Amino acid sequence: MWKVFLMATTLPLAAVAADARTYFTPERMREVEARVARHDWARAGKKSILSQCEWYLKMEPAQFWDFVPPATQLRAINVSHGVGCPDCGEAIFSKGGHYPWEMDRERPFHVRCPICSREFPETPFVPWNPGPRTIAPEQGTPIADRGAGWQDAEGHRFWFVAYYIFWQRWRKDVVDGANLLGRAYLLTGDMRYARRAGIMLAAVAQRYSDFHYEDQVYHEGIWNIRGRISDYIWTCGDNSKLARAYDAVRPALQNDAPLREILAGHGVADPCELIGNGMLRTMEEDILRGYVAGNMGMHQRTLCQLALVRHNDDSTRGPTTSQVRDWIFSGGGRVEDLLWNGFWRDGFGGESSPSYSAGWGSKFYELADLLPRIGLHIWDNPKMRKMADAAPDMLVADEFAPCIGDCGGVRGAKNVGFSASVHGRAFARYGDTRHADALRRIGARDNNLWDHLFDPVKLEEAVQTPPPPNKTRVLGGYGLAILESGSGENRRGASLYFGDATGGHGHYDRLTLGFFDLGYPMFSEMGYPTPFRTPRRFGWTSNTISHYSVLVDERPHENRNRGRLHSLVGGAFVQLMEASAENVYPGRVDLYRRTTALIDIDPEHGYLLDIFRIRGGKQHDWSFHGPAFTEFSVAGVTPGPVRPGTLAGADHAYGEPPADKKRTNGYEFFFNTRLMRPDSVWSATWRNPVDGAALTMTMPEGCVDEVILGEAKPELQKGNPEVIRYTLGRRTFPEGGKSLSAFVAVSEAHHDDTRRVRAVHRLERLSGPDTAIAVCVERDGTVDLVHSALDATHHCIWKYKDTIFDVSAEFATVTIDSEGVSRATFVNGHHLRYGALALNAAPPLVGEVTAVDLRANTITIDIPLPDPSVCNGLAALLGNETNHTAYMVEHAESAEDEDGTVLHFGHTLMRLGMGEVAAIDGKTRTITSDRTLSGYGRTDGGRHQGRWLCGDDLATLFPIAAVGKNTFVLENADTPLETAFRDQDGDGRALYWICDIGPGDWVKLPSRQEYTRPATSTNEH
Fold this sequence. Notes:
Elements: H1 26-38, H2 40-52, H3 54-57, H4 64-67, E1 75-76, H5 91-96, E2 111-112, E3 119-120, E4 138-139, E5 150-151, E6 157-158, H6 160-188, H7 191-206, H8 213-216, E7 217-218, H9 234-255, H10 257-264, H11 271-288, H12 298-310, H13 321-330, H14 335-341, H15 354-370, H16 382-394, H17 420-430, H18 433-441, H19 456-462, E8 473-475, E9 480-485, E10 492-497, E11 512-517, E12 520-521, H20 535-541, E13 550-552, E14 564-569, E15 574-580, E16 591-602, E17 605-615, E18 619-625, E19 631-635, E20 671-676, E21 682-687, E22 693-699, E23 706-712, E24 724-732, E25 740-751, E26 757-762, E27 764-767, E28 773-779, E29 782-788, E30 796-800, E31 803-817, E32 820-834, E33 837-840, E34 845-853, E35 858-861, E36 875-879, E37 884-888, E38 891-894, E39 901-904, E40 911-921, E41 926-929, E42 948-950, E43 958-963, E44 967-970, H21 977-980, E45 991-995, E46 1002-1005, E47 1008-1012, E48 1016-1020
Parallel strand pairs: 1-7, 4-5
Antiparallel strand pairs: 2-3, 5-6, 8-9, 9-10, 10-11, 11-12, 13-18, 14-15, 15-16, 16-17, 17-25, 18-24, 19-21, 20-23, 21-22, 22-25, 23-24, 26-28, 27-30, 28-29, 29-31, 30-31, 31-32, 32-33, 32-47, 34-35, 34-46, 35-39, 36-37, 36-46, 38-39, 40-41, 40-45, 41-44, 42-43, 42-45, 43-44, 47-48
Helix pairs in contact: 1-2, 2-6, 6-7, 6-9, 7-9, 7-10, 7-11, 9-11, 9-12, 11-12, 12-13, 12-15, 15-16, 17-18
């Protein structure tokens, strides 16, 4: 059963010589030597390493002891957080990114602005001047810095020397340098490299316990961040490099007399004892006690590397390999726990940002390769394969990843989660052509000098048969619906994020949209904040207003909880998705729902129709902006003059926080506002003057009371424009009035004046609910009539000119040209009539889950089908009153009794979590877990009510009625809990499993009917 993928060996460690390498083993080095002997690229790699080490050889070995800064020499990851250059200000970040300052070894302790080229400080710095952060900075002119920074007349403090010491001296020259020198020694056996690396390592080790990041490093405008040389996250990388460098030069530290003589002069009699049982042991203990912890997978990988290097089986000398193994598996390292409870079922780590969540997978892949060397094995866990699927699954328009949360920026993000480390290992293990195509996409080659990741011959064979392109789909665990259309250079796509963003690096952005066409992100997100910790980061970048969303009563979303998918349907010329998130405004709205369709004009062109419905509150503000293009114009209405202040008020300055200090709505970051009151159709266009690429958003009459044009600053990233142009559509309602809004917009990507969409108008409603919407999209000689309703049973009658458009469906389109109706489609409906065209269809397939097979990862539904294959590739919506979920059907087949249909979900598991049963209370129907059910690294934040729980047998499922901190209350059932949740396989653990689907849950499979002229149609479910 899948609960025993991690098997720990209890054999004692084999004895090794004191000077033996245990990370760079003889077997591994023979492989490296063979690559160098066989391949030009390997010889070039060796030459590059030696070339990078030449600078170190110019210094005598003895000089390297004082080359290493003392622990109390202040360090800084920013010169002046959020301020930038004394001359150029924040513009330096737009030029050089998050860490923009230029440095080189030939000008030690100076930094140079990439804009004005001015060098700071203006006076020499003579090392070392250690001291506490409370030492007063220098002031006045010339600009001097003796290690504690310089302060300007406005009180801004600039840490020039400390920045150089952190970035150049520590990270590049010492940590990276020791690692490079160690590898040069491995490749050549030349003691010149080993002596320099060994002296630096010993110097670091002798003072390692004195490193306290909290008091020694200026970090994003604050102090008191735990860590050692670097902060508690980046220290993981430092420790890995230093540990590997030590293993590389261990023979020299043990046996080279000149090296030992130099070290003895600094009081180091036994360098291996100092480094191995001193510094490396402290590194292990830091991780075990939680003082050092990186993003998920980082500290586990580092600890595994430390254990391999230390190779310790003596508990009197610190953590043993066995203790480390247990900690990684079932202790604070949580590897087993994270595999089942920390990764979404789609393979993403449990964070909102695609880049951060993909980072979990890349670290786990590296970890999976290391773990067998200490007796743990996780490759057979099915989540491992899904980690490699995640990046290709998320790819939109064959090019982009949606910039959700702290990911990417206004110019988009490409190849997020694609890596040779992940996809090379995945291809080698699974042979999947999608992983081979991922390697092709990033131009990966089998030219890693230290690790063999994949067979290049097999890869070359695999890429000859590329996988089929992504289709319209849903990543139901992560919470992302994706529409796809077009092909080749004309690929276009859209994304709708409804997932849970509470796991980390998420924004208040439920139901935000992405739109990709013409090789651009046409809907651009702010993405990763630069600088990271500023008022604008929380007030604007991660706030609701900066996304494609709607604010109710001038309030941002009140939480980042998951929404619900209502529809996802792919078709020949229409792709549709719909989701809601009323829970972001609890008690304030009863409708907060977005319907988005990607509609083809022809194979090369299309447009995005978006309908956002809100009911509740007294004011609705619809936020929209185009791509990061510099030209902006509006048509159909004349903007008023620029108003003073910001959207927060005429007297409210840019960035000024709210007076009540409560959480801001971000209106103070929206400036240069102009008011428009459109009484008919209007549009806004964003255009790139370089290549003429443009986006035009058109809104029909009656959607807004007023539109506020404004500007906002994007993140200070290289290549970003100075401002992004926003449109804010506003509707206000009188006290006691009916507060229902339907914001309708059509967005078309085009070049210069090649627009095809000419106008968009609302259709006259003759009957039907007020939540139903219909528009006509006028384009060159053609009109699309588009209908959208929240309920397919609602009978709606619309009037277009003198013709009736009669439809009962969730969504429908009719395209009319000079010859009449050329095409039509309707989704989840009963009938569609327009003129002489009449289409009828069966409604969507709605039934009940009758059986769940967790081993086969299938469900059986009570709907027999003559041809079950019509379900292949559909998005199945499932759930009950409390839990709603969605899965893509990989394939379907008739049940054995032919009284139902079996749906297969492939590698996407229905099991969402696991744990060990700590206690059972049969009277209260309570299962107590051995772990908490929410918190960092727990997907869905413990919101499992409405899901199902089962034990070792994976057969008897109990509905979850309520969830506590570490408890499940189960609904009544005949089977005693003590029987269902006992240890049934004799491994000493009684496990529970959280399942997404159970018997009695409803299931909905979409129906779609399409018509094209001449009268040929297909009817699909």
